[in-house]
């Protein structure tokens, strides 16, 4: 179920049209799918472990609220924000600048040079906090059932 980047995202309300939503891989579309992006993004923070804890708990609560409403798209978007909290804070934990690759115009895009690791234990702790909530979300039984149902609906409608 590849993410469809060709959709008119600024003009689609995915709460009204969940049939248009595709899960994709990882965090694909996390900053495109409305109204969920606007509902979740204000809470997405990971600068310190305390901020990450508060943020991940709020986003996880939104995840559970979406599940309670059988709103798979909202739950999946909350899951993506939790995953992105992990991946972004992990990147900052490994690279102080938040950049993984060296910026060099002479290097072709296929041979990007990875910057050396500068481990930041504070960001690593933030990453661990988000990872716990992300795993909790993606393994949630109701989420798994709604995911299977959504994939089945997509397969039926695409034939």
How does this model look, in words?
The chain has helices at 36-40, 49-68, 72-94, 121-138, 141-157. The protein is an all-alpha fold. α2 (49-68) runs antiparallel to α3, α2 packs parallel to α4 and α3 runs antiparallel to α4 (121-138). It starts with 35 loop residues before the first helix and ends with a helix.
Distance between the termini: 13 Å
In the predicted model, the low-confidence regions spanning at least 5 consecutive residues are none
Question: Judging from the principal axes of the Cα atoms, what is the shape?
Answer: globular
Could you estimate the helical fraction of the residues in percent?
40-55%
Percentage of residues in DSSP E strands? under 5%
Order of helices and strands: HHHHH
Topology at a glance:
Elements: H1 36-40, H2 49-68, H3 72-94, H4 121-138, H5 141-157
Helix pairs in contact: 2-3, 2-4, 3-4
Brief write-up:
This is DUF4385 domain-containing protein. By secondary structure, the protein is mostly helical.
Labels describing this entry:
globular, mainly alpha, 159 residues, 0% strand, 5 helices
């Amino acid at each position: 179920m590849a993410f469809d980047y060709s959709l008119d995202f600024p003009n689609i309300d995915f709460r009204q049209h969940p049939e248009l939503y595709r899960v994709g891989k990882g965090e694909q579309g996390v900053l495109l799918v409305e109204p969920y992006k606007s509902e979740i993004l204000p809470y997405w923070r990971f600068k310190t472990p305390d901020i990450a804890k508060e943020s991940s708990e709020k986003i996880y609560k939104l995840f559970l609220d979406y599940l309670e409403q059988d709103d798979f798209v909202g739950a999946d978007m909350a899951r993506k924000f939790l995953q992105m909290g992990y991946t972004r804070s992990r990147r900052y934990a490994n690279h102080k600048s938040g950049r993984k690759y060296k910026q060099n115009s002479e290097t072709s895009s296929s041979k990007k040079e990875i910057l050396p690791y500068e481990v930041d234990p504070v960001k690593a702790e933030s990453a661990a906090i988000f990872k716990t909530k992300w795993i909790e979300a993606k393994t949630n039984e109701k989420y798994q059932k709604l995911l299977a149902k959504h994939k089945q609906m997509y397969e039926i409608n695409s034939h």
